[in-house]
Amino acid sequence: MENKSLALLKQYWGYEAFRPLQSEIIACVLQGRDTLALLPTGGGKSICFQVPALQLAGICIVISPLIALMKDQVQNLRKKGIDAVAIFSGMSPREVDIALDNCIYGRIKFLYLSPERLYSDLVKERIRYMKVSLFAIDEAHCISQWGYDFRPPYLQLSALRQLHPTVPFLALTATATPAVVQDIQDKLTFVGGEVFQMSFRRENLGYMALAEDDKMGRMLRMIHKLGGSGVIYVRNRRETQEVAQYLINHGVSADFYHAGLDAQTRSLKQDGWMDNKVRIIVATNAFGMGIDKPDVRFVLHLDIPDSLEAYYQEAGRAGRDGKKAFPVLMYQQADRDKLWENFEASYPPISFIQQVYHHLGNYFQIAYGAGRGAFFDFDIVDFCKRYLLDILPTMSALKFLERDGWLSVSEAVFIPSRFKFEIDYQELYKFQVQSAKYDPLIKLVLRTYGGVFEYYVPVNEYDFAKKLKTSYSNVVEMFQGLQKMQLASYLSKTDAPQLEFLQARVDYKNLFIDAAFIQERRAIKETQLKAIYAYLDTTDCRSKALQLYFGEQDNTYCGVCDLCLMRLHKKDLEDSLRQEIKTLLLVESKTIKQLVDELSIGNDESKVKVVRELLDEESILLKNGLYSWNTGF
Question: What does the pLDDT read at residue 308?
Fold first, then answer.
């Protein structure tokens, strides 16, 4: 089996050897055992389920909350000649139906699902009829209420175990505390499972947490000193543009990135940075998932992250080539205060959550008793402006409504236009003969795509316009015309979050909200915030502090974080002071003032401190107000 796994790794990915723990995880999965793998960011988690799935008969179902990442993995698998498909919020019921049929009757090897899809009885029933070889749960920490990124739809994963009781689970995550590790296994009902965990220490990373009044000046000095490419994380979209412009004004190649940009712009900005056309990307936490750029020399945080888990993941995007790199967190007291204020705003009263639900029903014009299964593009900024709501508590309200099964909100993601013929080839040919207007477009579709009679294919109207030497609007008009004549289905592109109503609308007074759960989440989040503050305030070692938080005992200092470097500098200073004091006092005895004045290094405080230590050790003697070296020591 190991030889077969290595052969597949070489054949499809071009690697000569597995990364640490990958082969052990794959072997465990091939034995049919439930497995939990904790691998660092960039540790190659996808290989751990893709390689064994290619050896097992049947389909591998992958659950991931990151739609953009799912789409990238499906695209990459298809490029390798491996059949894969993804189902996520925003797809029409017919698209979902066709994709699921292909998983049952076709040659699909990987089915990627967003967790909210498991709310659908249709999806669960179709999975029952699939020959499933493996369930792979990415970002598995999302299933645990003790985790930093709890996602209520992940609680639906137990339904998979009921559908296929003997199929093993492979749960994957980069960050999990001991409580989360246990909770993942409990929630997924592991049977005799194995846990594989790499050390949370990254030997090449020099973590720094700096209290800094002049963040921009310090940032600029560090960029010039460290060299190489980097990521700068900030809290909001406005800051991405301001910081990027500041860098450009000071001669540094930079660009900004956030979720509010359209998909094409985000892709261009990301590619520019990946290809080293842009040195620094200034971004919100929307940037980075699935990106594996090896030569990142620094990751700077100009705001305090919400949790150590989030910080560890974002900081871990530095130094993936194994060379020295620096994750640096800069903060002020105002940042600490703001973090706590945001925490308070994230747990609104029940009445506010009910109010948000009521406004949503009116916003989308949902009648009472109706709306189940309806989904919409959702612009939260417009929604909050219309009803005069603050965005942060509104976002939290949506999460609690999602947790209690009232609705589902997906991330913002670009979904291209999709097209499918609804008549057979003979009928289509008759139509072509009769319609000179549509004939060139139909011929181009048929030449470009296979399977367009069986399932939806993504279409790029701009490419079609260029090839047909016509306008974009004319191409859209023709696609819409084919749909109006019921010859085809055409679903236009979208680039917005998707909101789906999972239950029929009820009066907000009858809306059940689990208040006890909200209080529990508040307590967990408070613990996580206090852990962030403890990390900032530690005087020991940054790497040790991170490892301890994740339940890993390690008493060795990393030697490269800001605290270790300060400690080493302090030791070097003290050693030098000791030697200089010895040299001076071996020549003649001196008063404390003479001694302090003649020492050439250190400040008065450090000089006096070393003198006291030498006195305590009896290396020097004090007699009649004069200090002398103890030659008999």
Answer: 94
